Amino acid sequence: MFEVRSDEPKYAFLWDKETKAKNLYGSSIELASEADKLYGNSLNINGDDALGDNPNRYKQHGFYLNADNCIGCHACEAACSEKNDNPGHISFRSVGFVEGGTYPEYQRLNISMACNHCDDPVCLKGCPTRAYTKYAEYGAVLQDPDICFGCGYCTWVCPYNAPQLDPVKGEVSKCNMCVDRLEVGLKPACVAACLGNALDFGVIENVPENREECKTEIPGFPTTDITHPNIRFQQSRQTKREMTRTDSMPLKYHKDEDNGKYKPVVDAKKGMKKHWNWKPLLLAHESSHVMFTLATQAVVGAFVMLVLGDFAGIETFTAVMSSSAFVPLLIVMNALLTFGLFKLNMHLGKPHRFYRGFYNLRHSPVSREIAGVSLFYTALLGYTFFSLFNLTALANIFGVIGLIGGPVGMFYMYKLYRIKARPFWDHWQTATSFIGTCLSLGGLMIALVLVGSDVTALTGTVLAGCVLVGLLLEATGHIAHAKDLSTGEGEGAASWYEQNTKYGWPYIISNGLLGLTIVLALVILVNPLSLITWLGLSITLLATAFIRRSLFFALVIPTTMPGAFFWKNKGFEEHAKETGLAKMQQVGVAYEHHRKFKLNELIETIKTTSMKEALQQTKSIFVWGKVKPN
């Protein structure tokens, strides 16, 4: 199962004897009944089907960090990575820090953090492939990379940045609590390697020997009310009133004198100057999400307006469906939705496993979104096919299915972004943005396809009205969102700060384009057949939709742990990619677009070696195996 060395030091063994019944959140520490224990299951570690002899096998375990003792040596990181054979850019455990004061009263607080194996693991509920399981054995939350298809949603919902998405392998992996060591009575590798006796491990709420405190949070640690993490802290030394992060995140931690706790507030460390930053905004990793959401919302909006309007007997939409532009419109809708789904699927780390997205319909909003959009896509195809052959009755059946699948997909598309760990998204403005896009882009799509056909003034007026309602809905949510963020605190307020500084000019331009588009929609209401005005509306609406949706993804700041100067620091990662430092594996930064580098290797192989080797490299690209950047 796991070989215990004959010279294993005493401090490497688990020490728990007596345990408590409840944890600090009120949940039971005992995770299995006596009957379940009698029929316990093996964890099949290294193919061994035996059961571990740990007497506390079915109790919730957790980490204990004495932050007073942590010296930031990173030995825990090294031990973890060595045991799990992690590449340089992946680390299940990482050490970040916050600092306060100035010389000679400077203070630095180191925080070593891995997965906290929470009571309510949001990664488990969010994962569409059901790659996560919370075991009764030790309360470990384990993840199977072989099931994962690399969507990365678990990395969004986790407040502690525990799941690690490997852009090279195209899959997620994380801390497994070293359950193989626990089965034979040993502490996890990171704990056994700690030089300063800062890390410890055992049944949760058990305070190690010579320790005084058992707190659930310290400065820099995100809120515990999202997942109820199983980690406890001692931090008895007096800390400064303000503790700042050394990474690029515009956050610092301010002490609330009433309760003694630290809360995150904005740290305007980069000043208030507005910047452009078009390249990282428009060419970001999430650009596939931008195109998928915009394309899907436009098609769903157009379809619902047409079919529902026809069923309701609204003259405008009935006229559109009987016009010569109806079939081209259906073709455009199918093509656009196919493109959006293709971009989303190719965004996955392992696109060939796309079908696993349906595995967690019980819990995951991602699975439900996939199911809703897939149902709508099937209905759209069926509706198009039967409409081409004038089989109205069958087309209407698929129309009804589309009216169900489309809104269901949109609802769960909205729900999957209401993430507590990402406050910028966790606002009702997300709903107004998505619904507004359905109306504005859906109405515009219909209008553009109708150009040159038998368009009436009434049709133009109604479609311009749909566009206007969508724009006004989005503008209302946008104003309320900005107001709430500007007067708030924490990561949401930090997003508002970056919105007005790092992406200040794109934000202003998007606001101006939104206002101009509203004016053009009003003009069209007066003169619905003006092609020049419709052309201007098309340009401004598409531009503002793409910029605003790109900002939606670029501005989100998660409730994550602080990094260090060169590790878990987004600013340094951007610098390493721009300067080429990321090509050095030891730097610990991996290019997201790793296939580009592998293709370069393939070209060089074709030039200098045999076709057999070139074919082997081609296979490695398209099965998304481990890639070594050149």
The proportion of residues in beta strands is 5-15%
Task: Give the spatial strand order of the biggest sheet.
Answer: 3-2-10-11-12
Binned, the helix content reads 40-55%
Total discrete domains: 3
**What would the CATH topology of the largest domain be?**
Formate dehydrogenase/DMSO reductase fold
* Count of beta strands: 12
Question: Ends: how far apart?
Answer: 38 Å
The CATH architecture of the largest domain would be: Up-down Bundle
Structural class: alpha+beta
Task: Let me know the largest β-sheet.
Answer: 5 strands, antiparallel
- State the helix count: 20
Mean pLDDT: 92
Spell out the CATH superfamily of the largest domain: Formate dehydrogenase/DMSO reductase domain
Radius of gyration: 27 Å
Shape, principal axes of CA atoms: globular
Give the C-level CATH assignment of the largest domain: Mainly Alpha
Residue runs with pLDDT of under 50 for 5 or more positions: 594-598, 620-630
Descriptive report:
By secondary structure, the protein is an alpha+beta fold. The protein has 3 domains: 10-266, Alpha-Beta Plaits, CATH 3.30.70.20; 278-554, Formate dehydrogenase/DMSO reductase fold, CATH 1.20.1630; 593-630, no CATH class. Helix content is 46%, strand content 9%. The chain has 20 helices and 12 strands. A 5-stranded antiparallel beta sheet has the order 3-2-10-11-12. Helix 8 packs antiparallel against helix 10 (326-347) and helix 14 packs across helix 15. It is globular. The two termini are 38 Å apart.
Question: What brief labels describe this structure?
Answer:
3 domains; five-stranded antiparallel beta sheet; alpha+beta; Formate dehydrogenase/DMSO reductase fold; globular; 46% helix; 20 helices; Alpha-Beta Plaits; disordered C terminus
